[in-house]
Amino acid sequence: MFTGYKKISDLETAYDEERRKLNDKLEQLQEIKHQIKLDCEYSYDCFLYLKNKMDYSQESNVKMTHIINEFNDEMTQRIKNEEMKIERSKDELKREYLKEIEKMGGRE
Description:
Elements: H1 8-54, H2 58-104
Helix pairs in contact: 1-2
């Protein structure tokens, strides 16, 4: 990944840029997680409104809560999987960077 660099400063710049991109992806995932939570809360609030207006049964409340929780759990798991992939990518990036720094020795 970092094999084309001749100067340590260029390598450091490239490493910082790649690390920043991965951190941005993590931040986007956190924003998505927060938005999903808000959407689930909104969906439930809408359901409660309809339940009161249309006299839905308590059973429908249980079903809807289950559906919303199931969706939230699935999205949370998917986001965690993506976070783990990004963290592994960050680890690999750091290993590649350190390996290339070691190869370069002290040249600049």
